[in-house]
Specification:
single chain; Jelly Rolls; 2 domains; binds beta-L-arabinofuranose
Length: 471
Amino acid sequence: MSVRKWAAVACGVVTATALTAVPVRAANPIITSVYTADPAPLVVGNTLYVYAGRDEAPAGTNNFVMREWHVLSSGDAQTWTYHGARASIATFPWAGADAWASEVEPRNGKYYWYTSVNGNGPGWMNIGVAVGDSPLGPFTDAKGGPLISDSTANSSALNIDPTVFVDDDGQAYLYWGGYWAPRAVRLAANMVDTVGPVVTPQGLTNFWEAPWMFKRNGLYYMMYAANDTGGCVTNTSFACQRYATATSPLGPWTHRGVVLGQVSSTTNHAGVVQFGGQWYIVYHTADAPGGGNFRRSVAVDRLYFNADGTIQRVVPTTGGGGGGGGGSGTNIAPAATVSTSHVSSWESLAAVNNGGTPVNSQDRSNLVYGNWPQQGTQWIEYRWPTSRSVNKSSVYWFDDNQGIDLPASCQLQYWNGSQYVNVDSQSTCSVDGNVENAINFDTVNTTRLRLQMTSRTGVSTGVLEWKAFQS
Ligand code: FUB
C-alpha cells in the first residue's frame, strides 16, 4: 500500500453554512442528499448528534474533496434531521484544505470540535479545535493554530482522526493518528492545550487510523481501523474496525477482535455511543446511489456486548432497516439467544449470530459452528424475549472438507405457541457453498425460529452465519 494513500487535494474554502433543519429518512445510509463520512456520535440530553465530514468528490475523482463538517440529529436513532454544514475549513483561518475526520466533546457547557485539517504551514495534516456554545454551534477556532501538527514532538506519521475522552475524574485525553501510528496525550482542563508528552499507546494491534475511545462498566475501549488480512479485510486497501480494552485510559491495551468487517468503501471510520439504553455504532459505506470510496455515506447500526464485555461483530444493515432501531429488513439474529441439538466441542455455537460476512464456506476467521459427529437432522434455534415478525432468513453453510459438509436439505420452522411447525410458503432452502443462501417465507410472529439441517450420508453439518430478518 502506498504510504500517501490519501492524496491531499487543494480545495477552495467554503463558507456557506446551511442553518435549516431538514428531516431525512430512516434507513442506511441515514442520508443520501449529500455524501457524508467519518461520523462521530454525541448524545446531549435526549438527542443523538452525528458529526460528519462531507464528501464532495465528483464521480470518477480518486481523491478526497472535503471542505465542510455537517451535523445530523435524532431522537430515536432512526429518524434523522439534517442540519447542514456547521463548520468548514474557513472556521480555521490557518487552514486551507482537507476537512477530514472529527469529533465533538462537551465540557463546561461548551462543545469542542476536534478536526483533522490541512494547515497552510509546513507539513500536511493537523488537529484543530473549534468551540461553540451549543451542539449546533456556531463554532469558531478555539486556539488560533493547530493543537497537533507535524512539529509536535512524537506526533503521528499522519496527524488525523482525533478522538477525545473525558474520564470520570475530569482528565481529558486526546488520541489520534494514521499510517499505523497511534498517539495519545493528556489535555488541559481548557480542552485546547496539551499537557505532558505525546505517548505511543501499546497494544492497539494492527492499528491503521481512526481511533474511537469510550468507557463501559469501568472498562476503557478503543475501537480503530485496521487493514490487515489476518481476519480483518480481504485486501489491504480496505479497513475493518478492531477494538482493544484497557483498565486505564492510556493503556496498555489488549486487542479483543474485529467489531466491523470490510464494507463497500475502502474506509469505514466508526464511532460508538450509548443512546436510549442501547449501544450504536456509526460508520460509513459507499452504499448511497452513486457512492464510492470518495463519495461515502453514514450508516448506523446496533452494537451488542457479550456478558463478559466483549463486543459482538456488527451486522451491517442497508435499506429500510438501517438506523439500527430494528425496522424492516434488520437482521435480528444478534439479539436472539441461540441453542442447538449439538455443537462439536471444539467449535462455537456463538458463530451463527455473531455477524459478519464469510469469505467462503471454509472461512474460520470469525468462529464456526459444526455438529460433528452427529448425522441426520440437527437444528439450531433462536429465541427472543418478545414476539418478532420475521419473513426472511439466510444461511451461510460451513464446509470443512472433512467431517462437516454442506447439508442435503434444510427447513425453517417457527414456534406457534405450543410446537414447532414449518414456515408457510418457504422458498427453496438452498444448500450452496460459498454464498449467503436467502430463504423467504410468509411472515410469522413468533418468539422462536428453528433451522433444521439434514446431513448428507456419512457427514455432519455446520453454519458460519444464520440471519433472521424482521418483516
Ligand atoms: O475522510 C478522510 C479520511 O478517510 C479520514 O480522516 C480517515 O479516517 C478515513 O476515513
